[in-house]
Amino acid sequence: MIILLLKYGADPSLVDGEGYSATHLAVLFQHIPIIAYLVSKGQSIDTPDINGMTPLMLSAQRVHGMEPTSFLLKLNASVNRVDKTHGNSPLHWAVTSGNANAVDLLLEAGANLDVLNEKEESPLDIARQTRNHLIVHLLNNETQVRVRRNSRLLKALQKYEISLVAMVNLLIIWAVGYILDMNTDSWLLKGTLLALVTALSQLFARRFVGFKAQQSLAPIFLCCSVFWMFNTWFIYFVPALARIEYQLPFFLSLTSLVYFFYKTCRTDPGYIKSSEEESKQTIITLAESGCLDVRMFCISCLVKKPVRSVHCHNCKFCVARLDQHCIWTGTCIGLYYL
């Protein structure tokens, strides 16, 4: 019906008696396909109502769930715009209504924590007034994270995070091997040292390892294990096994392992990508053919889903013929691995 009305000249920017446009109403009733179609046909995702509230503000205030807030953010809705009546940002409205899901999504999208409304209140001030302990915790935690990001030391650590994690993994594997190989019969001493190594590694992981590095921990650990295996072979076995027929099989096996592991990690498993314009055209095409639903269209990455494709929340892409997300390669197993 929406398509037919627009075809015959209906104006989606008109407002009803409460001041809501078609986009605002679609948000209120959580009609994601209608939101997608209206935006693809040229409606602004930040169109205000008579009070200056954008669809994102309305969603943060009225809809206690992940959608359509998450979908609006995917469409690049402004997270820092304020309404003209109260001067509230979407984060203000989410906090006012106790919408923890919307608060979490807005913080992840980079919403400003310091913006003040007409009453000179920040989102944290409102959360404290309403005594919503969960939202206070979310806002305080995000404030601490952003303060750390401004530290020069932590910026440097973040820049070389993967390399630092690899070096620490190498050190941990060496330390565990050294402790277990110590020339002592005291298992109490060995156990204490191993517990100390475990505690230090846990402390390092909590303080310095971000989400990106956490996803890469398994492949980094595997690479570090291969490194120490190669060193052990080179230092201890090569001098003892001088004949080439004993050394060649291991060398070929190790070389093949490194090569195929690298190819597996770097090969595109079948990610489905599209530009913003391509996504809009896809939405219009699917809507006008009556196929704009979650079975055919991914609302997370805004692409048409081929048969057997699944959205991977780790890679943040739809993957053609997805089998699984493999932690040991840090990537998905999909179409181009078959």
Commentary on this structure:
Its EC number is 2.3.1.225. It is found in: Cytoplasmic vesicle membrane; Golgi apparatus membrane. With 338 residues, the chain is mainly alpha-helical. The chain folds into four domains: 2-149, Alpha Horseshoe (Serine Threonine Protein Phosphatase 5, Tetratricopeptide repeat), CATH 1.25.40; 160-215; 217-266; 271-337, no CATH class. The protein is 56% helix and 5% strand. The chain is built from 16 helices and seven strands. It has helices at residues 2-7, 22-28, 32-40, 55-62, 69-74, 90-96, 100-108, 123-130, 133-149, 152-159, 161-180, 187-208, 211-215, 217-237, 244-266, 276-288, and strands at residues 271-272, 297-298, 303-304, 310-312, 317-319, 324-326, 331-333. Strands 1-5-4 form a three-stranded antiparallel beta sheet, with no helix packed on it. Strand 4 and strand 5 form a beta hairpin. The chain is flat. The model has no long low-confidence stretch (mean pLDDT 87).
Q: How many β-strand runs?
A: 7
**Largest sheet geometry:** 3 strands, antiparallel
Structural shape: flat
Instruction: Assign the CATH architecture of the largest domain.
Output: Alpha Horseshoe
CATH superfamily of the largest domain: Ankyrin repeat-containing domain
Structural class category? mainly alpha
GO molecular function: protein-cysteine S-palmitoyltransferase activity
Transmembrane segments: 162-180, 186-205, 217-238
Keywords: Acyltransferase, ANK repeat, Cytoplasmic vesicle, Golgi apparatus, Membrane, Repeat, Transferase, Transmembrane, Transmembrane helix
Enzyme class: transferase
